[in-house]
Amino acid sequence: MTRSFGDQVASRVGVNHVPELREVDLTPDDKVVILASDGVWEFLENEDVAKIVYPYFLKKNAEGAAENLVRAAFKKW
Where are the beta strands (DSSP E) in the chain? Predict the structure, then answer.
């Protein structure tokens, strides 16, 4: 699990500061990039996230997309 910088207690139970990385080649068909923690991905499927975010993409409203994505994940939590 990756999540904390300098957390000495959490490091004893397997939490570390090394991020999980994945490189993806974007194409003209890609409309948005969503960077989110497991707090989103544990509760929402990719398709759900796309449905939440896409209307805000059309309005060019990234802040609205982020707020509603967090709200949706929180409701599932």
Answer: none
